[in-house]
Amino acid sequence: MNIYLDGFTHYLAHEKEVSKNTLESYKRDISQFIDFFKDKNIEHIKDINKTTIITYLLYLQKIGKATSTISRNLASIRSFCKFLLNEKYIDKDPTIHLESPKSEKRLPAVLTLKEVELLLAQPDENSAKGIRDKAMLELLYATGIRVSELVALDHSHVNLDMSYIKCCNNHLKERIIPIGSMAKKALEKYIKTVRNNIVKEETEKALFVNYCGTRLTRQGFWKIIKKYTQKAKIDKKITPHTLRHSFATHLLQNGADLKSVQEMLGHSDISTTQIYTLLTKSKIKEVYNKTHPRA
């Protein structure tokens, strides 16, 4: 069956022109799929049908694979079967009417306002590094931008007079996001007292730079937030995305409308933003249970 896998990967690489990571993911999924059926003594591709695919998906479930992993495998198998059908290796697509397993909506981890304030208080504002780190943390919580968007910001993307930043996501869709007074103050201090002393070249566009004078990386920021989490002794796993989740949740808890939060987060689909409404409902229930005399 490996001849079909080779043809499929060639099709993905040269006709669909998928990324290297996507190609490796498809190749790994289908290779494991084929190996499973070889173990079951199924040698011919036409012997794979709806029942055998369900058998494989149940096997993945049995060995403890996450629902998201099983869904991804099914998506890979769908693409593989579509390729086989187009190439006339099979007569009909066995994945038609096969439904993906429903994944549970996991509520994202968020910080309380007290925990946010504790985390943002950790950088030493008497040092250049602390001033830079304070500005990054304040800006991340004030805007809800992704860490990739944070490190991609250029100096020209900041408008302190009008209190906003311009942010472009991976799809090059620009959005304007307001920044609050605390983030503005921290950012202004960093730009005026630190940045120009760190950059090595006047042509450097990056807003946030490392001590080599070049653009800070995502990995560099992960190390920074990990350090301050440990310093703050917050007993939660905090990632850069935790501040994004906290930003959205706190806005909704304080009366922001869902559409505005969607625009600030840069979500193309409002259903992605709706996960945060579950968190606010969870908070309401918690308050009710604690305060109602007959809860």
Automatic annotation (TrEMBL):
Please tell me whether the keyword Nucleotide-binding is annotated for this protein: no
Specify where it is mainly localized: cytoplasm
Highest taxon in the source lineage: Bacteria
Domain Tyr recombinase, which positions? 106-289
Matching Pfam families: Phage_int_SAM_1, Phage_integrase
- The UniProt record lists the Core-binding (CB) domain at 1-85
* Location of the protein in the cell: Cytoplasm
InterPro entries in the record, alphabetically?
A: CB, Integrase_catalytic, Integrase_SAM-like_N, Recomb_XerD, Tyrosine_recombinase_XerC/XerD, Tyrosine_recombinase_XerCD
Q: Which UniProt keywords apply?
A: Cell cycle, Cell division, Chromosome partition, Cytoplasm, DNA integration, DNA recombination, DNA-binding
| Residues forming the catalytic site | R146, H241, R244, H267, Y276
Record flagged with keyword Cytoplasm: yes
Q: Which PANTHER family match?
A: PHAGE INTEGRASE-RELATED, TYROSINE RECOMBINASE XERC
Its biological purpose: Site-specific tyrosine recombinase, which acts by catalyzing the cutting and rejoining of the recombining DNA molecules. The XerC-XerD complex is essential to convert dimers of the bacterial chromosome into monomers to permit their segregation at cell division. It also contributes to the segregational stability of plasmids.
The record's comment on protein family reads:
Belongs to the 'phage' integrase family. XerD subfamily.
What does the record note on quaternary structure?
Answer: Forms a cyclic heterotetrameric complex composed of two molecules of XerC and two molecules of XerD.
Task: Tell me what this protein is called.
Answer: Tyrosine recombinase XerC
| Encoding gene (name) | xerD
